[in-house]
């Protein structure tokens, strides 16, 4: 079923899409460094920086893959995690499940939404029964996991899905699966699944194409190191922005190298808020704060003393600033006609001064 207004959604009462402010998600991922107090500080710092939500990830190494050293399970050399096995990486990066209800409670106390990305069906059951999340995130890598999508859709909760690597056909299948499974609120995040991603590879025009093609809320999951990428995305219509977040890149963590620190995140969110305001709506003509400037447009002035009956010429009339006289477009209608009365130099021309 498709929502009555699929280009708008809400998470726990916070409206997303349309004219609503950009929804900013701080992704903790594995940047907690397996320290619960560190994880709590990340939640607090995300709230202080102005994020709307803090996102966790719900998996274990065993739910994600198997402990195997065959070549298929080793990460390629072009990755920042090159040489490690998947099992090894996920053992370091996973967020202990017993933390997650507590982090959700902390988020509720602070007033920041805390939800998660499930990576298998047991994670969905846990998030429903033990954590009580108000929304779900689907990662780019899981967009092809149709059984998982059906499981998440059955919760009936809002779903934000990244589209990194996915073809248009794969996105279409995923969206149809979610909608047929009961999801009425779906957001699609354009994403480049490279870590970090280069700005030249971002192709942000895809955001509007996703919105038009799937009639959905759209946004950006950004793994680049440049704040300009997310800001540009907002000007192009992104209603959601997701960025990886850490207290300090020096503290380590598997995603630290492409994560933002608190001061950087705070500045980015402020710029994103301004970009959203600047985007505004389609508008022509003077704005309220421009009315005073209209006086300094050009208009037709008499620039030499004239007596009644003198003809208007290019010598005694000119188009100059300010804008208190007739419009410049009226000049050809004026030239050759005669003054209806005596006119002093520096007088703005008006129709009552123009005779036949």
Describe this structure in words.
This protein has 356 residues and is α/β, with parallel strands linked by helices. It has two domains: 15-59 and 94-279, Aldolase class I (TIM Barrel), CATH 3.20.20; 288-353, Type Iii Antifreeze Protein Isoform Hplc 12 (Alpha-Beta Complex). Helix content is 31%, strand content 17%. The chain is built from eleven helices and 13 strands. The strands form three sheets. Strands 5-4-3-10-9-8-7-6 form an eight-stranded parallel beta sheet. The chain has a three-stranded antiparallel beta sheet with strand order 12-11-13, with no helix packed on it. Helix 9 (227-235) packs parallel to helix 10. It is elongated, with a radius of gyration of 30 Å. The model has no long low-confidence stretch (mean pLDDT 96).
Main β-sheet description: 8 strands, parallel
Number of helices: 11
Based on the structure given, which CATH architecture of the largest domain is correct? Answer: Alpha-Beta Barrel
- Backbone structural class: alpha/beta
Q: State the CATH class of the largest domain.
A: Alpha Beta
Give me the strand/helix succession: EEEHEHHHEHEHEHEHEHEHEEHE
Tally of domains: 2
CATH topology call of the largest domain: TIM Barrel
Helix percent band: 25-40%
Count of beta strands: 13
Strand content: 15-25%
Write the CATH homologous superfamily of the largest domain: Aldolase class I
Distance between the termini: 71 Å
Broad shape: elongated
| Average residue pLDDT | 96
Low-confidence stretches: none
| Spatial arrangement of strands, main beta sheet | 5-4-3-10-9-8-7-6
**Mind telling me the C-alpha Rg?**
30 Å
